[in-house]
Amino acid sequence: STLPDAGRGAFATRSLKKGDKVSGSPLLHIPNRGFVDMHKLKKTLDGKWIRKKNEIVGKQLVMNYCWGHVASRLLLCPYGAGVNFINHNQTKANIKIKWAPHGIMSHNDSWLTLSSTEMYEHKVNLALDYIASTDIEVGDEIFLDYGSAWENALNKHKNRWLEDIPSEWIEYGPAEVWNRNFGNSPIRTSAEQQHEPYPKHLLVRCKKNLSKKNYIDQIKEKHDKQLFNISDKGVPCRILERYHNDRRAGEFLYDVELNLTSSKGKKKAIRREGVPRNAIQFVDAPYSTDIHLQNSFRFSPQIPDEIFPDAWRDNIRGNERYKVNT
User: Fold this and answer.
1) Distances (CA, A) of 30 to 13, 147, 186, 304
2) What is the pTM of this model?
């Protein structure tokens, strides 16, 4: 995206005239936004994690990708191609949403008269069209207006988000950044990590191919290449020893212990020697990335008032049964 810190964005690959359909998407409906609540967890005596139903600590990330309205607990989650790449910009919005024609993408106009409680027993029957609100040229970024309530919520979040953040998150850096910045730096041995540990959110992983008998033949010609691809997170390993590579000045080799688990759950440890640095990487520990912070921004893009049905408002047609915190 052209917006700072917005991540990816959607861009026009052809010229569009005002009123042209840019895209469309069916919608998965969540009748009660309480379904995306995140709860405080506790561990039972038998080692299982269970949630504390009355202790809500936040909302799931999906909240940011589902359309909603401040007057309703209903969430509508689009899954059409590319629509979730469209970012918010109130001043540069060049498309808008409207309900798809009846019968297109299974959209059923009768759903606009149902209450959220009446949607529980039904499958997908709603869809949105994304319509150009002005002429759009090739290469222009596509923007939506998520609504004033969303804009106000984001500004409020920006002003207070550091208040409750744990101290270790202030200097947080994901594994991707660590691998990019320190990918050629020596890895600490397990003994060294006892005195100088890596941040809690980082795990050390080794290339899975090291488990094969001919592992050295597979990697000896790739000392200067990236061995990991985006889907290869490696396997757990302990760094046993670090020593100079006699054949390549300034380079270290490592003796490691791979901790493998078979598809049947059987565990075994394998020692490998002479492992190069690029066969070892950092990965993020589960649920440790910044999107899992309890005070991360969570607020649904808002369906415009002019197309939001009265039947979906919580004070209409007996929706009180499903009251939840917004």
Assistant:
1) 32, 20, 49, 18
2) 0.71
